[in-house]
Specification:
Helices cover 63% and strands 9% of the residues. It is mainly alpha-helical and 433 residues long.
């Protein structure tokens, strides 16, 4: 990239030229400087729009930057081309995005070689573009190429490849291959364990990520194992009653609440005890822990106890600049909703599937109980599943909305659920045309 210093040197060189060429040289350098500063300004504008995720606004300057270099390219032209491709991908202009990304990759390969580390993000962008257009096999090929280059430069077990593993996971899930998707997430943690060691606190975020993946995959016991490992590591490092164990304890208590409906209170009681011993703990940690104790009381039918915990949680979060209490408690939150399994989830038949949306609407009382549950979206192909979701929602407990720390009723609450369903014959034939 040409810097301001380089532009200055260009103008200084023009001043040192013979007198007969002086005016022409200065004029030429000035025009070049203006053109260059124009592109730099466009790049800053493009990047600002990208940072704000306003891709429609970013498209214009991105296209202008590329068009301005069609005849005479600057060194950053491949990056400009890739940026345009990624913007087009976000705007679902898939064909144009793929064309530009492939061209950018080809230019880098030609200039720097097929194993250039520059290509890691280019291949990742290409893979994510394929994912957006549901071309999952192509996505995996591109992302694995990025991973291969990453491993060549940073080592086989480098943790910097974690975003690539997340994207490969997404692609495998798109194919319905949960086995390979799970392997990717386990590999993500294994890399961190090899890099840092099991006792290193830098491993904790990787365990949390895997645990949440397991929760989303409806594997609560596997999630519990990861949270228990985090708890054990924090106990060994900080002590059994340190405030640092509150976060993993909350995750375990939430799972207990989901799976046992409050029947197993051992970890809940420990959470309350540790919280009691750490009155000076971080306000957010206290607030989140108190809110969870309120949730436990809600599920177990202790309405008065729940309201008291929620008041304390509001007070704790209000004392922190890190979390807005009003925003955190602005709407009811599901505590123990367990999504019903669809035929795809049960793997009843190995057929292509797609996603459907089920939207429920209902009221939530100040005690956290739903009423008037109704299905807003109608899809004849998911009628049975809609009925099961409606029934399950009626059985769910909610943390009620809080206003100035007090539980209040809320009407017309909407809850959107994305479910997998098998593709019907007409859709399948259309996809193959």
């Amino acid at each position: 990239m040409r810097t301001d210093a380089a532009l200055t040197l260009t103008l200084l060189a023009a001043c040192a030229a013979p007198a007969s060429l002086h005016a022409q040289s200065v004029q030429s350098a000035t025009v070049e400087a203006r053109a260059q500063s124009g592109l730099d300004g466009l790049r800053r504008g493009r990047d600002a729009f990208i940072g704000a995720r306003d891709f429609s606004a970013a498209l214009g300057p991105a296209q202008s930057i590329v068009d301005a270099q069609r005849e005479q390219r600057e060194p950053q032209y491949p990056a400009d081309l890739a940026a345009l491709g990624l913007i087009q991908a976000e705007l679902r202009s898939t064909d144009e995005a793929l064309t530009n990304l492939h061209e950018a990759i080809g230019l880098v390969v030609e200039a720097e070689g097929e194993l250039s580390p520059t290509l890691i993000e280019y291949y990742r962008g290409l893979g994510r573009t394929y994912i957006k257009s549901a071309q999952y096999n192509e996505a995996i090929v591109s992302l694995e190429q990025a991973q291969h280059i990453s491993q060549r430069h940073l080592g086989l077990f480098n943790v910097e490849q974690s975003p690539l593993l997340d994207d490969i996971t997404t692609a495998y899930l798109g194919l319905g291959d949960t086995v390979e998707a799970r392997k990717m997430q386990v590999e993500r943690l294994d890399n961190a364990l090899r890099r840092y060691g099991a006792a290193d606190p830098r491993v904790i975020p990787y365990r949390y990520t895997l645990a949440r993946y397991y929760q989303q995959s409806r594997l609560p016991e596997s999630a519990r194992e990861q949270y228990q490992e985090v708890l054990k590591a924090q106990e060994q490092r900080l002590g059994a009653n340190d405030a640092g164990v509150l976060a993993p304890l909350r995750e375990l208590v939430s799972l207990d609440l989901l799976l046992t409906q409050g029947a197993d209170s051992e970890r809940r009681d420990r959470l309350a005890a540790v919280l009691g011993e750490n009155a000076a703990a971080n306000a957010v940690e206290r607030g989140l822990s108190l809110a969870l104790l309120g949730d436990w009381a809600t599920v177990t039918g202790d309405t008065a106890g729940a309201a008291d915990y929620y008041r304390q949680a509001w007070s704790a979060l209000s004392a922190s600049s890190e979390r807005d209490a009003a925003a955190y408690f602005a709407k009811p939150a599901m505590i123990d909703f367990v999504p019903p399994l669809s035929p795809v989830d049960r793997n009843e038949r190995r057929r292509p599937y797609t996603w459907a949306e089920i939207v429920l609407e209902f009221d939530v009382s100040r005690e956290g109980l739903p009423s008037g549950v109704r299905v807003v979206t109608r899809d004849a192909r998911t009628t049975a599943l809609q009925a099961r979701y409606s029934r399950r929602m009626r059985e769910t407990h909610f943390r009620p909305r809080l206003v100035d720390g007090e539980p209040v009723a809320t009407t017309n609450v909407r809850s959107t659920h994305y479910v997998r369903r098998y593709v019907d014959r007409d859709e399948e034939e259309a996809a193959q045309e």
